Amino acid sequence: MAKKERSEVARSEDQQLDYMRHSCAHMLAQAVLEMFPDAKLGIGPTTDDGFYYDFDLPRTLIPEDLKLLQEKMERIAKEKQPFKRVESDVDKAIEFYKAADQPYKVDIAEGLKKEGENMVTFYENVLGDEVKFSDLCRGGHTEDTRGTGAFKLTKIAGAYWRGDENQPMLQRIYGLCFKDKKELKAHIQMLEEAKKRDHRKLGKELDLFTFSELVGPGLPLWTPRGTLLRNLLDDYVWQLRKERGYMKVAIPHITKKELYETSGHWQKFADDLFRIKTREDHEFAMKPMNCPHHTQIYDSRQRSYKDLPQRYAETTMVYRDEQTGELHGLSRVRSITQDDAHVFCRTSQMKEEFLKIWDIIEIFYKAVGFGDLKLRLSLHDPDAFDKYLGTPELWQEAENSLREIADEKGVDYFEAPGEAAFYGPKMDFMTKDSIGREWQVATIQLDINMPERFDLFCINEEGEQERIVMVHAAIMGSIERFMSIFIEHHAGAFPLWLAPTQVRILPVSDKFLDYASEVKKRLEESDVRVEIDDSNEGLGKKIRNAEMEKVPYMLVVGEKEVESKQVAVRNYQTKKQNVMDLDAFVEGLLKEIQGRELETQL
Fold it and tell me: For the whole prediction, is pTM greater than 0.70?
């Protein structure tokens, strides 16, 4: 099956599942109105694994309510109520919801009217001649309530109307929905495993990062162990970049408003910026991204075609004013560390630069333990072109260039209209973690708009100004977000080369501390990250503590080991223990570290 045909089949299956989930949201609202006839309805969109609906209710829900609502939904599903689409004048819809005392629906309908909508659509659940439920909705839906697959209500949360903390707090009911019971069961099992791997829980247990109420939400603080892990990852990315001709640059954390007005970020993301007013009443912003600054390094002097490509790399923080309710551990934060890079090159050099970055991505993700990468071409939405910079012709040219590179590379890929950055299309690399969740990780972006907006050029062979292109490259992207995925993927048991503590020496008693210190010195001479557990705990407790901290290798040293100048090596992954000569252990250990092995072998 051709790429296009495969993507069309996938879109069709995704759309059908989305219809199921959307229909479940309506069934949930119908069930809630049966239980609470005076309930005020908010919104009920789909999610990546199901749906939710927001309600203003006469009392606070309790977990037992979910069971009752689940039973009502199952009954509604069995009744096979058809979903009927009905068009209405927007003014009539407003009057209808005012009469029904549904203020949030009135708010939605009035908003549509302000946007210029004259007609709106309702979807009705019908049983016989009776309309059982009606909701203002664009659709689509399944044919009837029987076609809604397998679903399960999961949790209750609070949510401000319109995401605005000045608006009323509603009660949000979440549910899962999948094609059948088998897929639903598998997803529930995955969620249970995900709880055990939650990076927030493991980050605390492994002493990697913390948050402080005094510092503020969404602003993680990295401990020595967590900082070491971050630096090891970032240093490896830099090593791969350096080998391919990148140079480090450094920029400030704030900028004048005018820089982002020129780049287009101010117009697109003004509400997401942290703004600063100086004593002289000048307006600055905390940088939300680095690319506009990097254009000014390129533009600081005239560039010949012989100077290109210019490859700038920088790992630095950016800042975005995320809403408090959207913050989540390291996955969504306000201070974001980007392993950012930008290439300024001629159009003729763009393909080679893309392939160099692609090589870095493949090497890095293999070394950190992720499987095959899948490619998504993130393109613009032709029906909403006002969201983007540039012209349709420029976008078509840029997107065709990415297709050519993907085809030349010979990889399977799929296209995602609407997922492009506002300044250009992207190659997004997708991967699955160890429990089957899919994540977008690295990205390569082609930018034809920023060079235009900043008038970036080189002097070509004819002595004329030639417009250049800009390539954005993020390997981990947000290091915070990557770390959340990485921690959960490995459940905190990191590959040896990345483990904050690679070896812990466990003396059986204090009288063997001198030999433990000799072993530690020998390992430190080889740059191994090693600790001695010199606590007063028994050997069993020392082993349990090391295993709780997921230390790859434990070295038990007692009388036999002192006499023979050996070590008893305990492997965290296999739980096996065997006695080795110290030199043999060090040799094997270094081989694993230098080879960036994913599995411990000694």
Answer: yes
Pick from 93, 116, 89: which is nearest to 105 by CA?
A: 93
The pLDDT value recorded for residue 397 is 87
SS3 label, residue 51: strand
pLDDT confidence of residue 138? 87
Residue 535 has which token pair?
Answer: 């606590």
Residue 393's Cβ-count burial label (10 Å; 0-12, 13-18, 19+) is exposed
Q: Contact, 4 vs 403, CB < 8 A? A: no
Q: Tokens 């965290």 — which residue?
A: 572
CATH code for residues 202-490: 3.30.930.10
Lateral strand order in the sheet of 169-178: 40-41, 50-56, 169-178, 150-160
Cα angle for residues 176, 179, 180 (degrees, 5° grid): 90
Q: Report the 3 state secondary structure along 26-68.
A: HHHHHHHHHHCCCCEECCCCECCCEEEEEEECCCCCCHHHHHH
CA angle 40, 43, 45 (to 5 degrees): 150
By DSSP bridging, strand 413-417 and strand 374-379 are parallel
For residue 9, the model assigns a pLDDT of 46
Residue 504 pairs in a beta bridge with 531, 554
Can you tell me the distance from the alpha carbon of 432 to that of 426, in angstroms, rounded to the nearest whole number? 19
Strand segments (E) across 19-178? 40-41, 50-56, 83-89, 119-127, 130-136, 150-160, 169-178
Boundaries of every domain in the chain = 3-191, 202-490, 496-594
Q: What is the pLDDT of residue 6?
A: 44
Q: What is the DSSP string of 75-104?
A: HHHHTTPBEEEEEEEHHHHHHHHHHTT-HH
Tokens 């040799």 sit at which residue?
A: 587
Q: Which of 259, 339, 253, 333 is nearest to 292 (CA)?
A: 259
Spatial distance between the Cα atoms of 170 and 168, rounded to a whole number of angstroms: 6
The answer to whether 427 touches 401, Cβ cutoff 8 Å, is no
Phi and psi torsions of 524, nearest 5°: -65, -35
Give the residues of the chain that fall short of pLDDT 50: 1-7, 9
* Nearest C-alpha neighbor of 136 from the set 118, 123, 127, 117: 123
Domain with residues 496-594, CATH architecture: 3-Layer(aba) Sandwich (3.40)
Which homologous superfamily is 3-191 in?
Threonyl-trna Synthetase; Chain A, domain 2 (3.30.980.10)
The one-letter amino acid code at 97 reads: Y
Q: Which of 55, 19, 69, 41 minimizes the C-alpha distance to 175? A: 69
The DSSP code for 211 is -
Query: Is the CB of residue 197 less than 8 Å from the CB of residue 491?
Result: yes
Rounded distance between C-alpha atoms, residue 446 and residue 97, angstroms:
47
Q: Which amino acid is at 417?
A: P
220: left (phi over 0), alpha (psi -120 to 50) or beta: beta
Side by side, the strands of the sheet bearing 254-256 are 254-256, 283-286, 275-277
- At residue 149's C-alpha, the angle toward residues 162 and 12, to 5°, is 80
Question: Which residues are known to be catalytic?
Answer: 291, 320, 338, 340, 342, 426, 472
**What's 309's DSSP letter?**
P
- Helix-strand-coil split of the chain, %, nearest 5: 45, 30, 30
Residue 11 confidence (pLDDT): 57
Q: At a CB cut-off of 8 Å and minimum separation 6, what does 117 contact?
A: 90
Q: Which residue has the tokens 């930008």?
A: 342
